[in-house]
Amino acid sequence: MLRLAPYLTAGLVAGPIAVGLLGVTLPAFGLLPGLGGDMATLAPWFRLLDQPGLGRSVAVALFAGLGSTLIAVLLVFLFLAAADGTRLLGWMRRLVAPLLAVPHAAAAVGVAFLIAPSGLLARLASPWATGWQRPPDLLIVHDGWGLAMIAGLVAKEVPFLLLMCLAVLPSLDPTRRLAIARSLGQPPFTAWLKAVAPGLYPLVRLPVFAVLAFACSTADVALILGPTNPPPLAVAVLRWFADPDLSMRLVASAGALLQLLVSLAAMAAWWAGERVVAGLGRGWLTGGAPGVAGRAVSWLGLAGLPAVAMSLTVAILGLAVSSLAGPWRFPDALPDGLTLAVWARSLPAIAGGLATTLLLAALAAVLATVAVLAVLEQAARRGRAADRAAGRALHGLLYLPLLLPQVPFVFGLVVGAETVGLAPGHGLVLVGHVVFVLPYVLLVLAEPYRRFDPRWIMLGATLGASPARTFWTVRLPILLGPCLAALAVGLAVSVGQYLPTLLLGAGRVETVTTAAVALASGGDRRVVGAWALAQAAVPAAGFALALLLPRLAWRRRRGLGAAR
Amino acid sequence: MHRLTRLIAAVTLLLLSTGPAGAAPPDPTDWDAVLRAARGQTVYWNAWAGEPRINEYVAWAAGQVASRHGVSVVHVKLSETADAVARVLAEKAAGKVAGGSVDLIWINGENFAAMKRSGLLFGPWAEALPNFALTDPANNPAVREDFTVPVEGYEAPWGKAQLVLMSDSAYVAEPPRNLSALLDWARANPGRFAYPRPPDFLGSTFLKQATLGLAVDTAPLYRPVDEAGFEAVTAPLWAWLDALHPLLWRGGRAFPPDGPALRRLVGDSELAIAPAFSATEVAAAVLAGELPAGVRTHGLDGGTIGNVNFLAIPFNATAKAGAMVLANFLLSPEAQARKHDPAVWGGETVLAVDRLAAPARALFDGLDLGPAGLHPAAQGAVLPEPHPSWTERLETAWAARYTAR
Prior knowledge:
heterodimer; A: 564 residues; B: D-Maltodextrin-Binding Protein, domain 2; 42% helix
């Protein structure tokens, strides 16, 4: 059974991917039977190139994707370097975990409300400091180069990257590395950057690429914070897909393939950047001169990440307040009275989808985690080179859904499912969720699995335990923490799925998210605040459990925490 | 014994052929048969769900139709009507000609034109609805034309919208009543007016309104667009927009995405004047505290564009009879008056209220439209929508002129 696991998992992911890709590629070349398209043509590509502002859309997507990823990586690494060994690190870990559960769209709405000219910061400072009786006409949100969008993306990426770093950091034994660097005369901040960072980066490289791909192709954050005229490419593709002129779907499909190329180009640029940094950094790393990274940079590192995390927290609190607000006119710092009216109106809709949301998310997370564990365990048991190459190919395949633009991919899936006669409904939605949840679960589990000290397993084997027994009694208990983290991340990803749920369920599978996104299109900030909190509550509960359970389970096995 | 077997077989066949999943579509002109066929069906009604007030109204209507006609209704909540169109298109692409997953769509304009053109709709059925006559179609041609595309019974009217301007009386003493007055006002108050970026529905409507209001001769706008005519008709529009854009919110460098965003910006006092789709919906938003109490609505001299929104049944819908029963209920004076009430939704009725029988009319006379509501007389004339080919041509030309590169 276990031997079949890699093939089953590969099929589970490859089937939908192939169908989805086919569903984008054929229309991009004019083939869409429903519209009478039965001749391959390049016309959609020419129409795509004719779209005004296309160049700018691509440029903004690249700029925002690369810019936000670079800023987020720098913030996390500088913070870890500066905060190593301080209490601040523990505080941030606790502050940042719940932020991970906040859906991207909700975070973006919160950030928009924080920094807009009529937003929370302006209200807090007006009119006493600014003299503003009315919001100033300043282009802050929706600015032409997507700076506000970069801010929103950074705010959501930093918690993810920080947690990914903290998860693998212990396996590097940073204390000993630091001790050596310090003994060579390096000050603490520089010592961390020279001795720990070069070891840490390769371990979080995949999550960084996942972040980059997401940032280049995200539509929801871009819709709320990004430029509007023209919008980033992903939003433009979404608009073409929603165009009442059905032939624009062909252009949209071509645009979606272009989006795929843009994401790949961004990753190529990042890869080239890595080479350059590695080349330039070698001399600095091995040269003994201490203190090149100055005190100012160290302060920046110490303050930057907490500032971002605090801003996002305040933004979410702002949303929470606005969900309870009565009339709240500019420049009042606080609403004119509190009311439960919005919650009373929204709760029935939210509660209606709650059971479905939980069931789908739990099933998708468990299925994905079991599949990933089976794949990793099978790979761990056989160590031949050929198997390892196949394993790498399999991993590449499983990560592919992170790269695919969702809209056309899901549309292709719908056409494919209908063609083979699969009825839309809960089953199909579940498959869709698993495809998008799997790569994240793999991201969380792959590194702990690879770092797992094989001597534990050998120890089990020498005591006469079967591979299955060592898995259940040795490996799984030691990896309980990462497994629960994977489940929690899977839960959060599943809860966040909007388009796959809507389209694969033919709109009949109602989750908190489908209700929430539909309501958010109405634009009432109070309603958006209510659903954002409700939507974040489910994954937040998952993360809380993931943090709590290992503590309960390890109460009598405290040494396990260190065994990893 | 033998005879009994044959009887059982015959009854079984009969039961199978008249079951609710019977393949033959119901005949809309035989209303009793439609009611019979509808009983026990489940209608998946795909409707935009961005407004809690509308969703509550939909839930109310679902309850009514369930208790009166035994039809259960599920509101499939959309953020874009095009998502439902995509669903039907995907089903057609996959060759699914029956048993489709969408039974009724709230729709109009280009979405309808596209679905009708691509053969994605069932019909004709709408004019056979018993309540259709209450719209007084003979004197109310708007219910038979959707953006000048003949409806031909492929969708049933449900609601109405007529473009208005909302203005915050805290900042606007004398609301501008025509386009050149609006430009003058914007000169005096830069950054306080905005319209959504076309091809958003409201943005495009504003664009068409400006075209109609500025064109020397509006007749060409009601024929399919031709290139030479386009230049001549739209020259004053571009001159006006060129002057207006630097005076827009954010200097015209960013555009609000849609009507709800405009409403939020008026609520935050970022904007003082903005277009809106219907006076009653603005009134409802004021009542709900979403907009400041001082917000008022007004029309423009010479009238503003009005249009009707509809309900359509896809060609492969499963519960066609149930969908027709629901559409007919939604056209009843009781359902329409409730929809019109700003305290419930504030969606304008499509019925010819002055021609209703007295008890039905009383349902409307009793409604309190609030200070932001508009009496039909104050709203001004209804200008019909231009030919749909203009919409797309105007949107393309706008994007070519005003998209940053």
